[in-house]
Amino acid sequence: MYIAIIGDIKESRKLGESRNAVQEQLNSLLEDINERYKEDIQSYFLITLGDEFQGLLKVPDHVLDIIEYIELNMYPVRIRFGIGIGKIDTGFIRVEALGADGTAYYNAREMVDELKIAERSNKTTCSYIKLKSCAEFGDSDLINAGLHGLCFIEQLWTDKQREVIHKLRLGMTVEEIEQSVSVVRSSIYRRIQNSGYYDYKEIHDAITKTLDKEWRKNLE
After folding, report:
1. Model's pTM, two decimal places?
2. How far is residue 87's CA from residue 133's CA, in Å, rounded to a whole number?
3. Which of 39, 133, 160, 195 could be joined to 137 by an S-S link, Cβ 3.0–4.6 Å?
4. pLDDT tens digits for range 167-196
5. Distance CA 109, CA 60 (A)
6. What is the mean predicted confidence (pLDDT) over 76-96?
7. Long-range contacts of range 69-72, CB-CB < 8 Å, 24 or more positions apart?
8. How far apart are CA 167 and CA 160, in angstroms?
9. Which pLDDT value is given to residue 94?
């Protein structure tokens, strides 16, 4: 089994003259991810259709970390993410995933399409991440409920809260953040508390543990 991630920039046509700059920023970010998470990657992340990108993972350890890293660094540009778990039927090219085929990619593509349909039909959903797994992996409904919760909390963050949380997710301590943003420590703690960050982290970690548990079960 493998994990395919397909990302698609929302409302890319509305970016206007900044569209090229956004694509350049995304390309640089994907190169960073390919190096940062190289031990997890089967086929490198790369832009495939101008406003879309994809990559293939061989382990589930950092699925959400990768998506979160892209989301935080690309903000305020919004991206929808489809995650697909399944098989790959073609050979691998480490440098690029173009031409790869299999249920992992089909599932990820289906999730991107479902997110688009939900947005067009004005459903009251704030989710921009959705997962579909192969039948052997188990039911993905609970995972998607958790992903919905993550998206709901993240979209309520103010810019000041997001700045602090971004640094936290990069591994910085509150003391280091205090020095970097020139804000007193008590204000930083308030931003963290009021953002729902601890709930966000708990959901994030629970989803990661569930993915790992199901993954190991299928390897037995």
Report:
1. 0.91
2. 10
3. 133
4. 999 999 999 999 998 889 999 999 999 999
5. 18
6. 81
7. 69/29, 69/33, 69/36, 69/169, 70/7, 70/26, 70/29, 70/30, 70/33, 71/154, 72/162, 72/165, 72/166, 72/169
8. 11
9. 55
